[in-house]
Amino acid sequence: MNKVKRSLDNQAIGLVPLLLFMFLDNYFSYLLSFIIGVTFCFVCIFLFQILSKDKVYQFLLLPAATTLVLYSIFLCIRLEPVLFIYSPLITEVLLVVVLAFLGFAKRSILRKIRTSKHPTYKRTLMRTTLNEFFFVAQLVQNLYTLHLFIILVYSILPDTMQGVRMERFLYRELGIVIGVFLILYEQIRISMMQGSLRKEMWLPVLNDGGKVIGCIARSVSRSLPKKYYHPVVRVAVIYQGMLYLVTRGKKAFVSPDTIDYPYYSYVLFRHSIESTVRETIGELGEKEDMMPRFLIRYTFENEKVKHLVNLYVICVRSEEIMDQIKQPNGKLWTTKQIEANLGSGVFSEYFEQEFDYLQNTVLLAENFCCGDC
Description:
The protein has helices at residues 2-8, 16-24, 30-51, 61-76, 80-104, 106-114, 120-155, 164-199, 218-222, 273-281, 319-325, 335-341, 349-369, and strands at residues 202-206, 212-217, 229-239, 242-247, 259-260, 263-266, 293-301, 306-316, 330-333. By secondary structure, the chain is an alpha+beta fold. The chain folds into two domains: 2-199, no CATH class; 206-369, Nucleoside Triphosphate Pyrophosphohydrolase, CATH 3.90.79.10. The longest helix has 36 residues, at 120-155. The model is unreliable at 1-5 and 369-373 (pLDDT under 50).
């Protein structure tokens, strides 16, 4: 059922009633083809109205229905010779015109959704779906406009360069081929996007009070500096009164290639802070006496990000465990060594803000960690 719903998210499916009408027009009268096409269109609108309760929207059906309604005007004025030959082309022209008007109204429609009184999640879903619809609508408009231009060029060619078979293909078949191509293209694109999204890291979005109000892909959040507020966890490691620090990766988004704690991570959407801490420290989390202790929570902000930092500490007493934590690019730092390098760009921006607190509480934190021993 979920696969069916994902397929129905393909906005190009809204072209099916028009393609059905254009296809049937090759075998039946234009009037019968129109009746079947318009009936099918409004049945689809009714079905998608029901499916909208399950967050399935098919906006391209509305331009298709409008196109068929406008086509009915030609039926009323009895242009039988024209309709008999050019029904598919008239349908394409009307569709292009309808989509062009929709393009002009795009900003107004999106603004109306953005300022509506619907819940935030519903407004976000509606805007996302509408953006997808406008993308597909523009593609449909461009391809069918190109098709009409090709027909115009063909019509002015000398008679010796024209043929019945080519004329039938251009006037009656190519429009259907374009429609089917659009549906298949959009389905493949959606499948590829869903594959990418499954690999994406989804982060919770916090309000100023630290409450989760939604989620967003990490790649999207990073493309919009400081727009979204995310929680992170950081775990300091203390051994014999010294801090164990490592070099951050060169591709780190914040403070690349600087000195920092060995453990830090985003809190993923629908993950708790505690479970994130356990996952971050790996095998150490399986030892009850090595579970990190919470120290402080604060807001970190620079030109790139805004993070709610949850700072934890591990007080290591065993050399064996310390050997498990050690990394090739890490070492133990004394307080004096750290003080001598503060403000020089050696340490990460996070660490620069946290060190004063650690320095003033490190002994207390050590005693607290070992209080159960």
